[in-house]
Amino acid sequence: MKAQKFTGKIVIVTGASTGIGRETALAFAAAGAQVVAAARNAAQLRELAGPRILAVPTDITRDDDVRRLVETTLAKFDRVDILVNNAGFGIRASVEDTQFADAHRLMEVNFFGLLRCTQAVLPQMKKQGSGQIVNVGSVLSVLATPRNSIYSASKFAVRALSDSLRIELRGTGIDVILVMPGYTDTPFFENQVRYGGPVRIGPIKGWHPSKVARAILRACVRRKREVVLTAPGKLGAFLKRWCPRFLDWTLARAS
After folding, report:
1. Rounded to whole angstroms, what are the CA distances from 184 to 6, 82, 175, 232, 233?
2. Which domains does the chain have, with CATH numbers?
3. Annotation says 151 is catalytic
4. pLDDT tens for residues 168-177?
5. Whole-prediction pTM value?
6. What is the maximum span of the chain, computed from C-alpha positions, in angstroms?
7. What is the torsion angle, in degrees rounded to the nearest 10, for the CA atoms of residue 158, residue 164, residue 165 and residue 167?
8. Among the options 6, 28, 151, 183, which is catalytic?
9. How far apart are CA 127 and CA 159, in angstroms?
């Protein structure tokens, strides 16, 4: 990505300590932006910090933390051009077995944390008359798979919020972009809540997170509405729309 595309842009990235968030923060910085990297893990954020990356330890489930994140950004840079809502985690369990406390915590991070960050930046973006809100969903924003029900529900909710918000912001100069990665080689699988079973379902590692980061930057440049990543993800989205019963049968056999 050419540096001039984002020179002078101020970008907040949540979940920036590892995986897609970390690579996205680095990619924006390499493309000329000033990045505010947010995550709960202060030690990993310190390793990421540099001349173009300001580390701000943040728990997006806490109002005070998110308020401080945006206030720190505005105090130093006086604007917010792009918010990348990336923070999240997964649960692998059946609906019947999932403990309510785990489901509640996941929604607090994956959906309500995203909502909290979005609400925090909107007044400034409206004041500027410009901005981009990038919500990192998943191919599971389009199709649900066995034992990923709660995670899928959170990503379906993110997709619905993105669609509605895009209409609400029509004419404000603010873009809403939904990026839906497929299988990606990140610590997501090691960090998810698992009720038994292997860490990874198969030996395939998936996309490197830097490739997802590049797709996020391209989506911002091209002002895309939605981007579905990976060939299996695109195939799954196609089958969900046109052959849902066949997709259900296939997923049931694979689970």
Report:
1. 25, 23, 25, 12, 11
2. 3-254 (3.40.50.720)
3. yes
4. 999 999 999 9
5. 0.91
6. 54
7. 150
8. 151
9. 25
